[in-house]
Amino acid sequence: MRAILSLVIVPLVLSGSFATQYRPPPVSHTNFPKGFLFGSATASYQVEGAWNDTDKGESIWDHITHNNPNFIAEQQNGDIADDSFHKFKEDIRIMKDIGFKSYRFSISWPRVLPTGKVADGYSKTGLNYYTELIDELLANGIEPLVTLYHWDLPQALQEERGGWLNPNISDYFADYADFMFSKFAPKVKYWITINEPLSIVNGYGDDARAPALKELHGIGEYVAGHNLLLAHSKAYKLYQDKYSHNLGKISMAFCGSYCAPASDSVEDIEAAERCYQFTFGWFIHPVLKGDYHPLLRSIIDENSQWEGRKTSRLPYFSQQEIDQLKGSADFLGLNYYTMLLAKPGLAGLDPSDQRDSRVVTLWDPSWKPTVASWLRVAPEGLRMLLNKVKNDYGNPEVLITENGYPDDGSDPLNDTERINYYETHFAAIRQAIYEDGCNVVGHTSWSLMDNFEWRDGYKAKFGIFSVDFNSPNRTRTMKKSAYWLKNYIAMHDYL
Ligand code: GBH
Questions:
Q1: Secretion signal: which residues (predicted)?
Q2: Which of 140, 189, 461, 474 is the most core-located residue (most Cβ within 10 A)?
Q3: Domain residue spans in the chain?
Q4: Using only C-alpha atoms, what is the Rg of the chain?
Q5: What integer pLDDT is reported at residue 494 of this predicted model?
Q6: CATH number for domain 9-492, candidates 3.40.50.720, 3.90.1150.10, 3.20.20.80, 3.40.190.150
Q7: What's the whole-model pTM score?
């Protein structure tokens, strides 16, 4: 419709008396805002390897993959992974060649603090690795986007009162964050405290990830989530108090599958809102507003009471904690992969966060399936998500911290579906920016290279570079999508 209209209108304008004043519309749709941070992303356990280099501590992923090998497809683990611990200079060379302006990577907590605690001393080798990595990025003009926690908790902290269930864990995390800020605050402008709290809590009420404490469902995920929020807010406060003169920005990386209503009915519209609040909103709302969204509060309190409990399964924040949480993000890091359609219904373990939400989800038949059962291609959900956060939270700055497409690598370099995925998602971002006014400042593709994909081992491949896991060199090879991205970034970066 729009295309037809412009065909009709443009000649009229040109032939009229205003012809000399006619200016073509800004070419906004083919561009990105100046300085848009195109980049790529990885995470420590998924790419580093060197799991026991010198004095590195064991992480919960080292532990679970070694002690329960069947937890992972083909009994794989991240002992060597992409060997980025030894090959980071090559990684930086290849990302520079693509034209990436930023690199989102994570720091392995136990690599720097073997027991997890600053008081027990740090690893010189571990710290040195990240110093060299950051310096090499800066020397190559690539902005480091640093995640402090991407799921590899020190095993010692898991054994001490249950990791993220431990009431002291937020202080340990804040100490760790303080230590990293003290080393790198002058060099790092974007910090992500914690990657995907929603995924982390899946390890404390489900067996989707380490430490796989499924038996705690309905309780563990809320306690872990609560402590993750406190940990984030303490790290944020600390940065403001001691390091803010460095002008860095801090957020979490939030995730979920964006939920649209399955129909126009009020019930489905409400179900989609519950679905949002129980995923993205679970963590975004407290970080921006100070406390859980009223929907979570009332539903979980009610369900807990109905189950005959004296206290809610969703813990309460103190006033002081609310004050500290409120506004504890300078931008929103959003991980977007896919979307769902929502309607009312009961699903998931009883009790569990999923069941509490009273939502069942389905796929639109037009969304193409991928090798990952949870991921279908639906770029429109990204535009909807960007509009949702714009409307609900006063148009905050957004960095898309993950976005990507999995395949099985059967035709490893000829990944045209991945190109299609990025093309359509970039288009959705441009529409969100130029038609809807959303404040998106960057995008990091997941992932720079194929890597250890958690429970799927090395079977699901998200990289724009393929990695030869049979070779000790872990040779990286450009896929077609990498060529495409290189060209795409060059074309969109001429302003
Ligand atoms: C991200 O999580 C991670 O940050 C990253 O480390 C990972 O490599 C990347 O995605 C690709 O997976 O199987 O139905 O239980 C993405 C969010 C949410 C994806 C939970 C998998 C499990 C769905 N994840 N989800 S299911």
A1: 1-19
A2: 461
A3: 9-492
A4: 23
A5: 57
A6: 3.20.20.80
A7: 0.94
